[in-house]
Amino acid sequence: MTAATNASSGSRSDLERLVLDRMGRLVRVFHRNFRQPHELDLFELTMPQCRTVLFLSESPASMGKLAAGLGMALPSATGVIDRRVEKGLVARFEDREDRRVVLGGLTPQGKAMADGLYEADVAVLQNLLRTLTDSQIGTVLAAIELLLGVPMDADPAGRSAGSPPAPQQPR
Fold it and tell me: Residue 10: which region, alpha, beta or left (left: phi > 0; alpha: psi -120 to 50)?
């Protein structure tokens, strides 16, 4: 039975479980294909270190912001940064607005690593897309655009975090 068949006959929780299962499988495809030997030095990084480099590729961050953004404890984030500083991928510097705050940002070598991680993901995706028809690619694109349109802080009721709850209807 395909996901499309299940979509027409399953409950919402069944559909969510199917999406999560398929997403997990897709992530494993990326990991399996991403770790090909031709990828040079990209894989001297642990997964938390990869996530850190990719997080910092958007902009420098304080240790607290990094820890919160990656869902790890502050000491863990500091340790990951320490190891990336030793490898020359990250530099520490003080915040211009608050000299008490220490920021971590990518060095040129770290930026090159982040670019390499992104390019490796793109290469895996390109290989997957080559196997699809134009119509199937359109379906994938529509699904991705649908997911990108959902705010990351949205709750299941469709409200953004921090927004007031919907008014209760009188009984």
Answer: beta
